[in-house]
Amino acid sequence: MTNWKVLSQDMAEILQLDSRIIAVKRLENREGLAKIPGIEKPKSAFTYCQLPFLVRKQGKTVGITKEDAAALAEKMQLRYRCLRIQGLAPADEEQIDHEAKGFAGFWFKDYETARKAVGGYPNPSPIDALAMAPLDEEKFEPDFVLIYANGGQMTLLMNGLQYEEYEQVASCFSGEGSCADGLPRCAATGKSSLCLPCLGERSFGLVNDDEMVIAMPANRLERTVNGLKTLKETGLAYPIAHQEPGMDVTPLFTTWYPVQD
Fold first, then answer.
1. Which of 18, 52, 78, 193 is the most exposed place for a label (fewest CB within 10 A)?
2. What distance lies between CA 214 and its chain's CA centroid?
3. Model-level pTM greater than 0.85?
4. Half-sphere exposure of 28 (CA within 13 A, CB side)
């Protein structure tokens, strides 16, 4: 088993993260939740936007199924929208219609515009349950990780990801931010996804204005940390050093990029 605790601690130290890295497990069978130590279920009506905060800031281990969201879903037009994006509820025509009607005149001008938006979300594979926990507690073998960071930290994180094995990191804004473009897109494509937290997560999940989130397949984390360690040895580390905008950059650039045969 990968030493997730050490990897989590190393990344947090190098980037000076102020919240914990989130381990994510997508479960095809909800019985798997019972095998996770210390897992908690929501005690009242909730939205997905609240869950990452409970993990990254309060250190909770949480697990949800479609039934856990029924208390809120049965009372609003959007029905199971937040969970269907994660693969926890069917993305059928009835559900899409509910969402478009709920967004029309609120987030979007009319039904047609809303229908185009909600119909274009990522479509990850169906699951029966979703679990989140602080990565450093090693509650389970994660499928994905969620990392919240400011712009400077995120820049270096992606540089670390690309150091040993280059891959382009995509960012998307489908209109709903991280709840659609983070974990769901990563799960659907198998690739890292950088995105802006949605207004709901900033309000209900207490995400700061300067924070972004990246969803990564868990198997990318070790090489990202290794890349960050190597970059730090070359002087590329957080906090990023500020230089005088009017300075002559020749000495610095010739040191970084010396002429070679």
1. 18
2. 4
3. yes
4. 1
Interatomic CA distance for residues 111 and 101, integer angstroms: 6
pLDDT digits (tens, 9 = 90+) for 51-61: 999 999 999 99
Query: Residue with structure tokens 């998307």?
Result: 172
Q: How crowded is the C-beta side of 167, counted as CA atoms within 13 Å?
A: 17
Neighbours of 224 (CB within 10 A): 26
Q: What are φ and ψ of residue 144, in 5° steps?
A: -140, 165
CB 228 within 8 A of CB 14: yes
Lowest mean pLDDT, pick from 76-90, 122-136, 210-224: 76-90
Please choose, from the candidates 171, 137, 156, the residue with its C-alpha nearest in 3D space to the C-alpha of residue 239: 156
* Of the candidates 69, 20, 242, 247, the residue with the CA atom closest to the CA atom of residue 152: 242
Sign of CA dihedral 47, 48, 54, 57: negative
Residue 19 pLDDT greater than 80, yes or no: yes
Q: Within the chain, what is the greatest distance between any pair of CA atoms?
A: 69
Question: What band does 38 get if pLDDT is binned at 50, 70 and 90?
Answer: very high
Structure tokens at 124: 């990850």
Facing residues of 150 across strands? Answer: 211
Torsion of CA 129, 134, 140, 141, to 10 degrees: 100
As a whole number of angstroms, the distance between CA 57 and CA 14 comes to 19
